[in-house]
Amino acid sequence: MKPHIIETHGLSYSFGKRQVLHNLELRVPQGTIFGFLGPNGAGKSTTIRILLGLLPVPKGQVMVHGQDLKDHRIDVLRRTGTLIEMPTLYRHLSGYDNLEMNRRMVQAPKSRVEEVLQIVGLTQDAHRKTKEYSLGMSQRLGIALALLSDPELLILDEPTNGLDPSGIREVRELIIRLNNEHGKTIFLSSHLLSEIEKCATELAIIDRGRTLYQGSLQHLYQGAFTSNVLQLETSNNSIAYKLLADHQYELLPQEADALAVQVHDKEQVALLNRLLVDNGIGVYRLSMNTHNLEELFLNMTKGEATPSAVL
Fold first, then answer.
1. Which CATH number fits domain 226-289: 3.65.10.10, 3.40.50.2000, 3.30.70.260, 3.40.50.2300?
2. What is the pLDDT of residues 23-43, one digit of tens each?
3. 76, 180, 201, 239: least CB-packed within 10 angstroms?
């Protein structure tokens, strides 16, 4: 089992009389891309500010890199890189000069500037003024700035915000590469659920300061499988319909050219297919109307989640 690079224990936080976080429990395994999701007002920004030491919390509630954040804030932050939405850049300076200024502040080796430029794919544009950079290039430079100290953990909040499809893909591929090739743990907060779905291996969904789900994407999908509908086309839909009904399958209203059957697991799909074939009925198409992350997220944050999807 992988150690946790971030842990929160009963994390609660209030602004005056308004409580924002309610006993929030997070466990971020080392070496993962961890998606952090929640609707507006769920407490995501407050949680991130706490993880970066910008808001005070009681001792013992937040552990990062195995250390209590309250007692070891400076050391924790040295080992953590961050990009919160848009990077702060000196637009009259080149990408290289922006990195060099920040390198001196974090006291990284001089060679690190060239290394991070290569990692984010900006070597050829290093000496262009950043006012000439596209938004996607600026975001990649922001990630390069976060990488200067060679941190084990990257906290990225909305890194694809405002990007066009090409820029979104560039940042997504960079995040995956940082994880796979450079061993970085990525804590990724984003409203683009399709992007989380494409790159995250673990995730947490919070709402109103409480954890609704935490675990792998695979487990989340498996927990929602009970509501899947199988669409199938056969050589004779009328005979297939009667055969399935006789064998107690849950048939839904029939469409013109397809049958719809409620299924509960993958084994049931295999048995259904074998039943039809063994009875001389050709199966032309089997397709599952599965939930995607957006549907599951909306169901959970509206209070419609299945018990298997909730902590």
1. 3.30.70.260
2. 999 999 999 999 999 998 899
3. 180
